[in-house]
Amino acid sequence: MLRFMPVGDSMTIGSAGEHTWRYRLWRHLCDTHNGAFTFVGPREELYDKAADAPTSHAYAEPGFPRRHLAGWGEGWLHMAPLIGDAVREHRADVLLVSLGLIDLGFYTNAEQTAQNVRAFVAGARETRPRIRMVLLPVIPNIRAAADPSFAEEVDRFNVLLAKAVADLDEPRSPILLASPPQSYDIHADTYDGTHPNARGEHRIAGAFAGAMWEAWGVGEVYVAGTG
């Protein structure tokens, strides 16, 4: 059985009442992947905005494997120390990673964030030498649209992320850099300029699905709206 672990920040954990892109990708793979698979990870909760904590289980569609390693307000800085134990305990085969916006917004600059990417990869491989990874570039949000210096930091990090993938990719433990979600529009694909609505969830799921289909033959081409 192929074991996927979604890793991310608020765009990945989602909040109460949402489907999440994790569900959209799971639904797509149920329809297209020729083989057994599941989602794994040490967490399964959604973020509850009223409680300001990840305590909700109120998924819009609860009938899917909800496990993940994602957290509201968490980034590469937070996940790098956790990934080794998470991979070991849950025997992940493929990491689906969407991180970086929080790091750049609150904790680290582009260069420091890129170093945490490398620490994350090393930690995952230390316990699972043949693990595969798909990394999503940072999607610029409403802050990037209003703040040119932050937009430049996002662009610089995405360049460094591509370099890290090129440097660290290896045959026994391949790393894919997914393309940014196609035609992503923060006004149409989010509900607040950052967090995805249903359309945005499909587009993020499609970015991961497209990378895995093109490189590894996992699933098929993603058709938005079928999940």
Task: Set out the fold topology.
Elements: E1 2-8, H1 10-13, H2 21-32, E2 37-39, E3 46-48, E4 53-56, E5 69-70, H3 76-79, H4 83-90, E6 94-98, H5 101-107, H6 110-127, E7 132-136, H7 142-146, H8 148-168, E8 175-177, H9 198-216
Parallel strand pairs: 1-2, 1-5, 1-6, 6-7, 7-8
Antiparallel strand pairs: 3-4
Helix pairs in contact: 2-9, 4-6, 6-8
Please describe the structure with a list of short key phrases separated by commas or semicolons.
six-stranded parallel β-sheet; Rossmann fold; alpha/beta; 227 residues; two-stranded antiparallel sheet; globular
Describe this entry's structure for a reader:
The chain has 227 residues and is an alpha/beta fold. The protein has a domain at 27-37 and 75-216: SGNH hydrolase (Rossmann fold, 3-Layer(aba) Sandwich), CATH 3.40.50.1110. The protein has nine helices and eight strands. It has helices spanning 10-13, 21-32, 76-79, 83-90, 101-107, 110-127, 142-146, 148-168, 198-216; strands at 2-8, 37-39, 46-48, 53-56, 69-70, 94-98, 132-136, 175-177. Strands 1, 2, 5, 6, 7 and 8 form a six-stranded parallel beta sheet that branches. A two-stranded antiparallel ribbon has the order 3-4. Helix 6 (110-127) packs parallel to helix 8 (148-168). It is globular. The mean pLDDT is 96.
